[in-house]
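Hey all, quick one. A colleague (J.T.) asked me to put the zinc ion job into the tracker so the inputs and the structure tokens live in one place instead of scattered across chat threads. No bug as far as I know, just bookkeeping. Sequence used:
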Amino acid sequence: MSSEDPSGFVPPPGTDPDRRRPKLSFELLGCAWNGHALVGTDAATVGEQDALVVRSVDAGRRLHRCLRCDAWTMLPTPSEPSRETPEGRDEIVLPDRGRPLKSRYVLRLIALTRAFNVLVLLLVLGGAIAVLVNQVSLRDDLVANATSLQTVFGGQVIGQVQSLLSGGAGPLWLVAIGVFVLLALETAEGVGLWRATRWGEYLTFVMTTLLLVPQAFELTSSTSPGTIIGMVVNLAVVLYLLISKRLFGLRGGAPAISAEREHDISWAALARHLPGCSDVRGGASA
Ligand SMILES: [Zn+2]
């Protein structure tokens, strides 16, 4: 988040006067996608106790403060209000903002890479099942075209495929079951990360760390850009989960994550983004 001045005021997203280089405000991205999170747009009256989130300008206009990005938006007073006063604080679910929101975007980015893996594994599984169903005819075709295929794919690859197809359905079933298990794990990872669950973070850590072992071996025989990029990305994911998501109790663990959440997503946090309002008692009451 932005730097705090001695009064406790923190500039809202996108308004930091010290902003010298482009910086992504995830709150603004969230509002671009979901719209502003406003309070009291359907209330007949607003009072002093609501000043932190909605203020009356005159009989026909009100200023509403977005609970996510802190922008104030002027709207007409509702002509047909559905409630007398704005929602109380215990009725309002504050939207993600600050570090928890940023982390949510990072986790969803990792979840998208898992979705890509799931698509690739589905193709592999489909291929394995197709080979299982047509094993005999494929083996005959392979034998008939062995010479020409060897010139394209190399003798070693074709030899391995030939022995796999000749070895009965057992090895192929093992491949298909292995791919299916991997598919289920990658899907669980993606869902867990998308929903920002702790088990999703741990599962991703374990799976990605296990994947680093064969990648490290592969690196000893091949230094192709794909191998290096894949390994760097996986290393970054593992380090991000360990350091930023504080897995295994690192840097304070889950209690520190909760404290971070309370610091950035709370009524006190909303008060810190209003000049002269660092004390939450100056705002609305429940
Ligand atoms: Zn907003």
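Adding what we noticed when we looked at it: Strands lie at 54-58, 61-65, 72-76. The chain has two domains: 26-97, 99-260.
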